[in-house]
Amino acid sequence: SGNPGYRMMRVYLLRAKISLSNTTVLKYMQELGIRSTVTPKKPAYKKGDCYKKFENHLNRKFHAEKPNEKWCTDFTYIFMEDGRKRYNCSIIDLFDRSVVAALNSSHIDAELAVQTLKAALERNYHPKNLMLHSDQGSQYTSRAFTDYCKEEGIEQSMSKAGCPYDNSPMESFYGTFKAEFISKHRFSTDEELNNATMDYAYAYYNHIRPHSSNGYMTPFEKRMQA
């Protein structure tokens, strides 16, 4: 993983029974030359055909009372060792900020969005009364994706155009994903990338990494309280 900031570093130390102030942790990190990783800006994607758009039903209500009530999804990119570009589609649960699905592909298309959602539903036994929030990207407004959501009884919600704050939990997740994972590794094969993505998302992020939205419990610890 990448280098956490001083606040997260203090959380790791507290979990290891080492109590230091934020100021002290920052001082030691500076003395040791440890700097938190800065994340790159999200890329602009080409627009495609729009089959159907939806209102912002989530409306920045990023708290969920139970698991599998509200999910958020988005895309980002990953560069391979030889410069080839791969795309990641992930879905997180707003109840505990856990990653419920994370898939990679050489194409950023509706198929990747659908397959990621299928994986998330299968991992969580096809929950009912689910809301899925995304931006207005052509992948999410496509007929293939909107029809699949309708078949599964999923209520789609979409950010206003050009308003990333409407999907800020995904922006936050991808900021962490880029800082702790993408910026620190280079992959020569898709198999290496896919295996490492699963390890990061399902093992490290869900079970080891504390999350501020959970009161610095891990997503797994938060879910176990549900």
From TrEMBL:
- GO: which molecular function terms? nucleic acid binding
Annotated protein name in UniProt: IS3 family transposase
The taxonomy runs: Bacteria, Bacillati, Bacillota, Clostridia, Lachnospirales
Q: Which domain of life is it from?
A: Bacteria
Instruction: Tell me the InterPro entries matching this sequence.
Output: Integrase_cat-core, RNaseH-like_sf, RNaseH_sf, Transpos_IS3, Transposase_IS3/IS150/IS904
Residues forming the Integrase catalytic domain are 63-226
UniProt source species: Parablautia muri
Q: GO biological process: what's one of them?
A: DNA integration
> Which PROSITE patterns does the UniProt entry name for this protein?
INTEGRASE
